[in-house]
């Protein structure tokens, strides 16, 4: 596997173990069928609990059975999962960074005890409902709202593009609390079997096909007051979750790019044209050299990000830079790898075109490339250009 400047030689024993466990799981359990899942638009749901048993959900958190591994180990795990498919990494990202993280960071003791062990083992599946049909890049405009009622709240609204909503047991729904001054955004734990909840699946996606995506409809859904995340109010709630998930994406995208590179390198040495392997042509070597360089520089950024996160010095803007750079890199390199495979490159027998299509979603969700550009622009100039 490409590790051109030997970054993995600095991994400690636990980090290597996590890397190897994830690689083996992917090779044995997922890679053989992932192309078929992608074609059929299904996720291997039978693996959700096994992923939990292997510690793939929020292993960087501590307590409630979670091991508190290093941020590097967590990043490497995301890299290995996405080397298989962005849908697989999305499963772990949503469950860990978007559902378990907010419960861990902002939940009551009862909420933590009720949900973290079950989510950690994959016995329960969670989803994160922020995006709405009319509010994507600007989620603060959300229309979903809560009104106080009978020592609880009535929720109304709709969320869309929600990873795993059709299979989730619980949704973290971000909604404006109209019973409080200034309608603050609050996080609500909504069990999906409550009256008034619907979770329609979104079909016919041409990207991230091996991942289940749906809507969340909320029609006078009652939740008791103890289902509100007590320790956070305002947009910093959902945004801090997104920072965690984007951190994983910055690592994960490198995995997709690395898999494209390895596939193209192998193909170029095997495939013969004009009397020998195409890898002997300078044009092909240039593509491989560029791919390896881009992947390596993205890895360096990710490793540095892990150090900053470990020290508590990572800012959301650092994460924006890494998500923006590494996903764009992977998206560009997947196309080049596809090109190197010629006609075979457009089939599901090889991974690059699947990664290429998946990366359109990764480029768009968790803040589009444009939005991260604006985040960096604001950080660099002090002037916000969002509106
Ligand atoms: C497969 C998939 C899974 C997803 N999973 C989840 C999930 O689990 N939970 C969840 O809450 N959401 C999820 N999302 C939603 C995702 O986060 C949104 O799609 C994303 O935030 C963009 O919102 P939008 O699609 O409404 O695009 P829009 O915000 O409408 O953007 C359209 C275009 O306008 C550009 N644009 C917007 N504002 C500006 C600006 N100020 N300046 C310049 N350009 C701008 C954007 O960059 C984009 O190119 C998922 C999306 C997909 C596709």
Automatic annotation (TrEMBL):
Residues 234-378 form the Acyl-CoA dehydrogenase/oxidase C-terminal domain. PROSITE patterns: ACYL_COA_DH_2. Residues 13-123 form the Acyl-CoA dehydrogenase/oxidase N-terminal domain. The keyword Lipid biosynthesis does not apply. It comes from the Archaea. Residues 127-221 form the Acyl-CoA oxidase/dehydrogenase middle domain. It catalyses: glutaryl-CoA + oxidized [electron-transfer flavoprotein] + 2 H(+) = (2E)-butenoyl-CoA + reduced [electron-transfer flavoprotein] + CO2. GO terms for biological process: fatty acid beta-oxidation using acyl-CoA dehydrogenase; fatty-acyl-CoA biosynthetic process. Pathway: Amino-acid metabolism; tryptophan metabolism; Amino-acid metabolism; lysine degradation. It is an enzyme of class 1 (oxidoreductase). Its EC number is 1.3.8.6. One of its GO terms (molecular function) is glutaryl-CoA dehydrogenase activity. Pfam families: Acyl-CoA_dh_1, Acyl-CoA_dh_M, Acyl-CoA_dh_N. Keywords: FAD, Flavoprotein, Oxidoreductase, Transit peptide. Its cofactor is FAD. The keyword Oxidoreductase applies. Belongs to the acyl-CoA dehydrogenase family. This is glutaryl-CoA dehydrogenase (ETF). It comes from Halomarina oriensis.
């Amino acid at each position: 596997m490409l590790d051109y400047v030997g970054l993995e030689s600095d991994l400690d024993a636990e980090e290597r173990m996590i890397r190897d466990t994830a690689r083996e799981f992917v090779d044995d359990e997922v890679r053989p069928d992932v192309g078929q899942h992608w074609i059929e638009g299904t996720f291997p749901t039978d693996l959700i609990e096994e992923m939990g048993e292997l510690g793939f959900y929020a292993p960087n958190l501590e307590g409630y059975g979670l091991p508190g591994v290093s941020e590097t180990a967590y990043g490497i795990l995301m890299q290995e999962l996405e080397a298989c498919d962005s849908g697989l990494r999305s499963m772990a990202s949503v469950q860990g960074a978007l559902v378990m993280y907010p419960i861990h960071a902002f939940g009551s003791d009862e909420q933590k005890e009720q949900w973290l062990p079950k989510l950690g083992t994959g016995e329960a599946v969670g989803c994160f409902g922020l995006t709405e049909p009319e509010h994507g890049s600007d989620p603060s405009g959300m229309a979903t709202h809560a009104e106080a009622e009978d020592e609880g709240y009535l929720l109304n609204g709709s969320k869309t593009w929600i990873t795993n909503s059709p299979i989730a047991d619980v949704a973290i729904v971000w909604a404006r609390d109209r019973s409080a001054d200034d309608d603050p955004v609050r996080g609500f734990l909504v069990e999906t079997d409550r009256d008034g909840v619907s979770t329609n699946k979104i079909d016919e996606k041409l990207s991230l096909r091996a991942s289940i995506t749906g809507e969340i409809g909320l029609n006078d859904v009652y939740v008791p007051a103890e289902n509100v995340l007590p320790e956070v109010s305002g947009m910093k709630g959902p945004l801090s979750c997104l920072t965690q998930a984007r951190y994983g994406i910055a690592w994960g995208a490198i995995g997709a790019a690395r898999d494209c590179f390895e596939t193209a390198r192998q193909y170029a040495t095997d495939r013969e044209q004009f009397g020998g392997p195409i890898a002997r042509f300078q044009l092909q070597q240039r593509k491989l050299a560029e791919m390896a360089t881009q992947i390596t520089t993205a890895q360096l950024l990710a490793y540095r990000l892990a150090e900053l996160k470990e020290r508590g010095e990572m800012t959301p803007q650092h994460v924006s830079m890494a998500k923006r750079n590494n996903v764009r890199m992977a998206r560009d390199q997947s196309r080049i790898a596809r090109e190197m495979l010629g006609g075979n490159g457009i089939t599901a027998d090889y991974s690059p075109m699947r990664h290429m299509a998946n990366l359109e979603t990764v480029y768009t969700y968790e803040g589009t490339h444009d939005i991260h550009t604006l985040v960096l622009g604001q950080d660099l100039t002090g002037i916000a250009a969002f509106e």
